[in-house]
Amino acid sequence: ITFTQVVITLSQNSLWAALLLTAIAGIVLGMGMPTTPAYIVMVALLVPALVKLGATIPAAHMFAFYFAILSAITPPVALAAYAAAGIAGTEPMRTGMTAFRLSMGKALVPFMFTYTPALLFIDFAWAPFVSAIVAGVIGILALSAAYTRWWAMTITRVEQVALTVGGLILVFNQFWLNVIGITIVAAIWYEISRRRKDRMEALIGRA
Questions:
Q1: Among residues of the chain, what percentage have pLDDT more than 90?
Q2: In a 3-state reduction of DSSP, which class is residue 74?
Q3: Long-range contacts for 96-99 (Cβ within 8 Å, ≥24 apart)?
Q4: How far apart are CA 31 and CA 77, in angstroms?
Q5: What are the C-alpha distances in Å from 83 to residues 60, 98, 155, 187, 189?
Q6: Count of alpha carbons within 13 Å of 46, Cβ hemisphere only?
Q7: Above 70 in pLDDT, residue 4?
Q8: Is the peptide bond preceding residue 76 cis, with omega within 30 degrees of 0?
Q9: Residue 86 and residue 101: Cα distance in Å, rounded?
């Protein structure tokens, strides 16, 4: 109960801040225990805070469960990544960091179905469902490119930051935020395509 109150206090009654704190707590708890016990602890400690701040009960539970699973590939105790490293014969920490970078785009998903319960078929309506799917696909693509610094070619730091901002804006699935986020991502893709075309033409010219 005290832990729940701490989350509510730190988040200043902001659902976004409470979700972020819950995600961090889920990853930390998952470092020391398997997914199911980590989820059970989060249900006892954190899910009530999310529900109190406005999240639907199924969305709050799915959010907690999602990040309890994600902890399996989050360093420094990325158990699933370390098991994969043993099979592949690679260095465990480097494998864990690579798994972390490749998976962070998916961290957008639980935030999206918290803000758009229609993705979980709760209070379902076609308009928010379709817009959330479109925004989610573009947002995950943008964040994945930002975390890996690759989108058809190596991207710059400025493009990385812009894609991160654009991807995060799409979490809320609000019309004008979607317009801004998609515009940012489209502009970065246009710039990358132009730069890639110039490079290909230069290589063809040398040949």
A1: 39
A2: coil
A3: 99/73
A4: 5
A5: 29, 14, 31, 40, 36
A6: 30
A7: no
A8: yes
A9: 19
